[in-house]
C-alpha cells in the first residue's frame, strides 16, 4: 500500500501531530514501508502457532495466597461518617 502526502496529512491530523510539509514524502515512504511489512506478516500461516501471553516460555513465580494482615474493618469503619451492614455510605453524586 502506497501512501501519498494527503494520506500522511490526514493521519497526522487524526494523531494530532504536527508534520512539516517538507518531510511529508519521507513520512509517506516510511509509513508505506511499515504497511507493506504488516501485509507481509499477515501472509504468514499462523494456524499451528499457539498464542502466548509472553514471548518467553516460562512460568510465573507466584507467592502463596495467604492472609498477611489482620482484619481491621471495625477500626476503619469506626471513623467513617456513615456505615451500614459493613459498607461505607457516601452521598449520591449522580441523579
Brief sketch in words of this structure:
This protein has 95 residues and is mostly helical. The protein contains three helices and two strands; from the N terminus they run H-H-H-E-E.
Give the secondary structure arrangement, pairings included:
Blueprint: H1 5-14, H2 24-42, H3 73-78, E1 83-84, E2 87-88
Helix pairs in contact: 1-2
Any overview of this molecule?
The model has no long low-confidence stretch (mean pLDDT 90). The chain is mainly α. It has a domain of 38 residues.
> In this structure, how is the largest beta sheet organized?
2 strands, antiparallel
**Proportion of residues in helical segments:** 25-40%
The average pLDDT is 90
Low-pLDDT sequence parts: none
Share of residues in strands? under 5%
How many E-type strands? 2
- Give the overall shape, derived from the CA principal axes: elongated
What's the total helix number?
Answer: 3
Strand order of the largest sheet: 1-2
Give the radius of gyration.
28 Å
Please state the structural category.
mainly alpha
What is the chain-wise order of helices and strands? HHHEE
Please tag this protein with its features.
95 residues, single chain, mainly alpha, 37% helix, two-stranded antiparallel sheet
Amino acid at each position: 500500500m502506497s501512501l501519498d502526502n494527503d494520506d500522511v496529512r490526514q493521519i497526522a491530523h487524526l494523531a494530532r501531530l504536527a508534520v512539516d510539509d517538507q518531510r511529508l514524502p519521507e513520512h509517506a515512504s516510511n509509513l508505506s514501508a511499515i504497511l507493506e511489512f504488516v501485509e507481509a506478516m499477515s501472509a504468514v500461516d499462523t494456524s499451528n502457532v499457539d498464542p502466548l501471553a509472553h514471548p518467553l516460555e516460562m512460568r510465573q513465580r507466584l507467592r502463596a495466597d495467604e492472609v498477611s494482615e489482620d482484619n481491621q474493618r471495625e477500626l476503619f469503619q469506626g471513623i467513617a461518617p456513615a456505615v451500614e451492614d459493613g459498607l461505607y455510605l457516601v452521598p449520591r453524586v449522580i441523579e
